[in-house]
Amino acid sequence: xxxxxxxxxxxxxxxxxxxxxxxxxxxxxxxxxxxxxxxxxxxxxxxxxxxxxxxxxxxxxxxxxxxxxxxxxxxxxxxxxxxxxxxxxxxxxxxxxxxxxxxxxxxxxxxxxxxxxxxxxxxxxxxxxxxxxxxxxxxxxxxxxxxxxxxxxxxxxxxxxxxxxxxxxxxxxxxxxxxxxxxxxxxxxxxxxxxxxxxxxxxx
Length: 204
Known about the structure:
By secondary structure, this protein is of the alpha/beta class.
């Protein structure tokens, strides 16, 4: 994983609405999460959530137990300030997902649209998958998006790994049952089109 300082600089140097991965609303993610966690008691973690507006819409939909994890304190502060008083309803974790120790079986839904494609080192990917196995309860849902085969080869000045649905699922292994996969053509604030692939798995 790149250093915390790299990501703090990314968010300190420009508004959150100007970063390439910005979405006014994370519509695809909300749809996938809402389908598997319609109840108020679902425990959802947004990994690499940073300044994403997903947390706003999860809270607005009535989700009570939301955790946002990001390596960048600057990104998390952007989200806290935007939410105002509602920020107290969220658990915020500033950490590197490949190193933090999350509680076992703590989450019903794991969501990541921002991290996995940056893990170019196989050891980091293995550490990430181990975190998922530990932190998601058996029978829980794992929703991970990464750049697709036609996506960019770099993002924020860093190399990325691009995946087709089968390749992305293969990184997680047989304990993860692939329920569905969808593609998304994301338009960046600058007008570029980036291909994302979402895989939704059930953890056995």
